[in-house]
Amino acid sequence: MQRACAAALITPGTTIIDNFGSSNDEKAAMDIISKLGASINIVDNKMAITSNDYIFRSQFPEKNVIVNVGESGLSMRMFAPIAGLFNYDIIFTGEGSILKRPMNFFDEIFPLLDVEVHSNNGKLPVTLRGPLHPKDITVDGSLSSQFLTGLLFAFAKACTVPVRIIVKDLSSRPYIDLTISVLKSFGFQIHNHNYEVFTIHPRAPLAAHSIKYTVEGDWSNAAFLLVSGAIAGEITLKGADLNSCQGDKNIVQALYDCGADVHLHNKEVTVKKKPLKAFEFDATHCPDLFPPLVALAAYCKGKTMIKGVTRLLFKESNRAVALRDEFKKMNLDIELDGDWMTINGRNEIKGANVSSHNDHRIAMATAVAALAAKGNTTIEGAEAVKKSYPDFYKDLKALKTNSNASKKADVI
User: Fold this and answer.
1) Are 177 and 245 contacting, i.e. CB atoms less than 8 angstroms apart?
2) DSSP-derived secondary structure for 13-66
3) Where does residue 307 rank: exposed (0-12), middle (13-18), buried (19+ CB within 10 A)?
4) Which domains does the chain have, with CATH numbers?
5) pTM (two decimals)
């Protein structure tokens, strides 16, 4: 949804978006494009976003706009390059953990693209003034793919000749596949050369028109529900596109590997509880799967090993440490060794008082683990799920009608 908002902003005409949600991250994206000149109307559960090229060509050198990204790392890193297309000051602020997350990338790259940038020693607030001029550049993709996502959007909008972005050590490759897929749906052309070189082609001028776009179901959130079926009962999940380029659909492979009973039919996934065994998983390119995988591994007999720990440092929390510390309270031992996490599965997970660390995925992981734990679990900061999945507890509670096991614990 955040990517669809960005694409609608840089596409003249009206975009009709179906299947949008109400998470804080989505609200942040909607607010940002409104501040940058798009209009939004919601009618009959569909969102109409109208934009035009005039907002990018307008000359307001004395103007300034303040946008708040909330806690959304994607909105910050994606909309900053797009904001660089404007010729007035745009000031990015945020809340909570986003204020501590590194944004040095902009200080290094924007001057090369003729964008004036001022940051707080590589952190928010960040002030930008364009206009950005696309040109061949080389960037470091090891910290986050989100920086590249933003450049792809900005270059796609502004380039008049083909330009190339050379990327070193790109992480989270499936998220770039998703970015390119969304841009393609809006008529932009980007060629991916082995995730090392991205060629962005200019798009022919478009007359104002209407684009219809349906937001995919979110595999990052679906992963928690599927794990709940594997450890606490049975669940059938609808609307999950197995052909999606979202990397987090690999949760299905992890469920197979640990011995869960998994059935796929059209766009439905059914998972049933079975005795589970330890597994090995590389989450380097899908680090958001770490929290649901830990909840799953807690109930797998033996030592589960997950690779990609270094990708967890600059999330809403230091997720590796947060997972280790909070699951320890639930009688689970987690070891961290370089890029590897080892989870020593147990026969009995205990309910406990745990903290979300104000991280939506930590809250969801402990809640799912609590479904089959012995005793009650209380989650401090449970409201963090509003960032990406406001109805999470409502959906989790609905599983009680189908699972005797889930009745063992109350998730508060």
Assistant:
1) yes
2) EEEEEES----HHHHHHHHHHHHTT-EEEEETTEEEEEE-THHHH---TT-EEE
3) middle
4) 2-123+134-203 (3.65.10.10), 219-408 (3.65.10.10)
5) 0.93
Residue 45 backbone zone (phi > 0: left; psi -120 to 50: alpha; other: beta): left
Structural contact between residues 150 and 77, judged by C-beta atoms closer than 8 angstroms:
yes
Q: What are phi and psi of 128, to 5 degrees?
A: -125, 150
Residue with token string 């809340």: 95
Separation between Cα atoms, residue 97 and residue 369, nearest integer Å: 24
Kindly report whether the peptide bond that precedes residue 291 is cis, defined as omega within 30 degrees of 0.
Answer: no
Contact present, 107 and 117 (Cβ < 8 Å)? yes
Counted residue by residue, the chain has a size of 412
H helices of 186-263, in order, are: 219-232, 251-257
Task: Give the active site residue among 25, 89, 218, 288.
Answer: 288
Q: How many CB atoms lie within 10 A of CB 274?
A: 13
State the pLDDT at residue 409: 34
Q: What is the pLDDT of residues 31-75, one digit of tens each?
A: 999 999 999 999 999 999 999 999 998 777 788 999 999 999 999
The SS3 call for residue 207 is coil
Which residues, 6 or more positions from 104, have their beta carbon under 8 angstroms from its beta carbon? 119, 122
Q: Give per-residue pLDDT as tens, 224-258.
A: 999 999 999 899 999 888 899 999 999 999 999 99
In this structure, what are the phi and psi dihedrals at residue 354, rounded to the nearest 5 degrees?
-125, 170
User: Has 288 been annotated as catalytic?
Assistant: yes
Nearest to residue 299, comparing CAs of 339, 330, 337, 323? 330
Count of Cβ atoms closer than 10 Å to residue 95 Cβ? 14
Q: What is the pLDDT of residues 91-134, one digit of tens each?
A: 999 999 899 988 999 999 999 999 999 999 999 999 999 999 99
Q: At 412, is the secondary structure helix, strand, or coil?
A: coil
